[in-house]
Amino acid sequence: MTPSKRRPPTGRPTMMDVAAAAGVSQATVSLVLSGGKSGRLADQTRKRVLEAAQTLGYKFVRREQRATPGRQSTIIFIADESITDPWMSLAFEGARDRALESGINMLMGVSHADADVESSLLAGLSNVGVLGLIYGTILTRAVQIPPALARHRLVLVNCYDEQRGAHSVLPGDVLGGRSATEHLLERGCKRVAIINGQQGVDAARDRLKGYRQALSSNDIPFDPALVKPGNWEPSAGYEMTRELMALDNPPDGIFCANDMMALGCYDALRELGRRVPDDVAVIGFDDREIAQYMHPPLSTLVLPLYEMGRTAVELLLDDAGGLHSSPSRIKVECTLVERGSTGPAASDHAAPTGLPQ
After folding, report:
1. The dihedral formed by the CA atoms of 92, 98, 104 and 109, expressed in degrees to the nearest 10
2. Which residue has the higher pLDDT, 121 or 32?
């Protein structure tokens, strides 16, 4: 796996850098460095994370740090679903770390997308000096900004409003889908299929768009037979892989639009006697915890919620300082994490033979 080369403008290493160096997810890094306990984490994993953080010089901002009291010293993070979801947990971690670096407190609330609950949350904080709000959603989607939120500085995370009434920070799903597909092509795949997510969901639409862009830029005709609908669950990955491999000209590379469907894809290929990546290369999306433990470990794209949370706080701080004149829509890069499921680069071995043309 190749560690991320990206650095923030300050040159400080990020949590993503530590995750890449240790070969784990950002959620694991956060859990280890914050002192959290989990029976799922082996001592060896904890040791790798700590060693990577020390080598890179990464400094973790701990929860017990507090901002100095004062006017507008708090940012409120409101999620539409429970903080136990890994995505909003990562977004909150990123926002909290960046806020504490600037001496700002972070408070968390869960609204379940209920406008009345959101109003009650803010009413209960009327005596707090609120610098601004961050509103995050589990699914990337359009939202209507409730009046109670619109009265404050506001940044939307993983969501957006069509009227552009507030800043929004979104994952770069189109570029991510393109990167995933091009990675398979660079590994020598001739026919790349996609098992996409639930129809009508922004992430599925954008990842498919990136897939098609990659084919077009490499002068490869689009074949609708290589596009299969999914539902983000392993069962869809299994069923759609069986259908793909039953084609007269089956794929030699499969882009699963999330890691959970890649799990089912692995199972189907194993039943069919196909080896990953020797017979079929597979790439996922999201970099869930399970990806690193699959056999072989799954190449995937990071869903950059931690960085999105940090960016949201940056936007609020800039707004508070009068640096923004109009709402912006920012796309954060979904970084490629190379593991064993896509094999070595095509230039590292002889040209493949016997692959579908």
Report:
1. -10
2. 32
58-63 contacts at long range (C-beta below 8 A, 24 or more positions apart): 58/12, 58/13, 58/14, 58/15, 58/17, 58/18, 58/33, 59/12, 60/33, 60/34, 60/97, 61/96, 61/97, 61/100, 61/101, 62/34, 62/35, 63/34, 63/96
3-state secondary structure of 327: coil
Task: Tell me the per-residue pLDDT of 140-174, one tens digit each, with 9 for 90 and over.
Answer: 999 988 787 888 889 999 999 999 889 999 999 99
98/8 Cα distance (integer angstroms) = 12
Domains and CATH numbers, the chain: 15-56 (no CATH), 74-172+304-335 (3.40.50.2300), 173-302 (3.40.50.2300)
Residues 6+ apart with CB under 8 A from 175: 210, 331, 333, 334
Q: Which amino acid is at 181?
A: T
- Cβ–Cβ < 8 Å for 127, 148: no
What does pTM read for this prediction? 0.77
99-103, 237-241, 352-356: which range is least confident on average? 352-356
Q: Quote the tokens at residue 122.
A: 């803010």
Rounded to whole angstroms, the Cα distance separating 271 from 42 reads 30
Token pair recorded at residue 43: 């001592």
42 versus 269: which is more confidently predicted?
A: 269
The C-alpha angle 160, 166, 172, rounded to 5 degrees, equals 40
Q: What is the Cα Rg of the chain in Å?
A: 21
Amino acid letter, 211: Y
Give the relative orientation of helices 26-33 and 305-320 as an angle to the nearest 10 degrees. 70
Q: What is the dihedral of CA 208, 210, 214, 220, to 10 degrees?
A: 30
pLDDT at residue 99 in the model: 92
Do residues 183 and 336 make contact, with C-beta atoms less than 8 angstroms apart? Answer: yes
CA 342/CA 320 separation, integer angstroms: 45
* DSSP assignment of 43-91: HHHHHHHHHHHHHHT--PPPTT--PPP-TT-EEEEEESS-TTSHHHHHH
Mean pLDDT of 233-243: 98
